Amino acid sequence: MDALRAGIYSKLAADGTLTGLLSTYRTKFAIVDGYDIPMDMESPCVQYTVISDNNNDTKTGRVRVIVVDFTVFTTNDGDPIVIAERIRTLFHRVAITVSGWTNIITEVTGPVQVEQDDSVKSSILSIEFTLA
């Protein structure tokens, strides 16, 4: 959903604390929407991807529940958990602006640290957006 992805980027890019922890890439912050991180992007960076999009019935109508995974990558001298915790603070139980929708509730799971290789550290968190 383009409106949600745009809302996520806007929320992340507007936070000076978070962007101060990230690299820049081609004049923008190192925040990537999608599956591929450009080969020339430096860390630390954040990648987010929609992993599920479901319609659920409620007592009074329908809601759309979208789960987005966020992965934070750093080199060995960085701490991905610090960045992931900042993302958690920005989203957990906080509504964001999604054009054409009402963000009823947002819940965050994680972060957890993930082993990559000797030169990269990462952490992952999942965010569930309930929209009406």
Distance between the termini: 13 Å
Annotation field: number of helices? 3
Average pLDDT taken over every residue: 92
Structural class: alpha+beta
Characterize the overall form. elongated
**How much strand?**
over 45%
**How many strand elements?**
7
Q: What are the salient characteristics of this protein?
A:
STM4215-like; 132 residues; five-stranded mixed beta sheet; two-stranded antiparallel ribbon; alpha+beta
Describe the structure.
This protein is α+β, with helices and mostly antiparallel strands and 132 residues long. It has a single domain (2-131), classed as STM4215-like (2-Layer Sandwich). It contains three helices and seven strands, in the order H-H-E-E-E-E-E-H-E-E. The chain has helices at 2-13, 16-19, 80-91, and strands at 24-25, 28-29, 31-33, 45-57, 62-75, 103-117, 120-131. Strands 3-4-5-7-6 form a five-stranded mixed beta sheet, with helices on one face. Strands 1-2 form a two-stranded antiparallel ribbon. The longest helix has 12 residues, at 2-13. The model has no long low-confidence stretch (mean pLDDT 92).
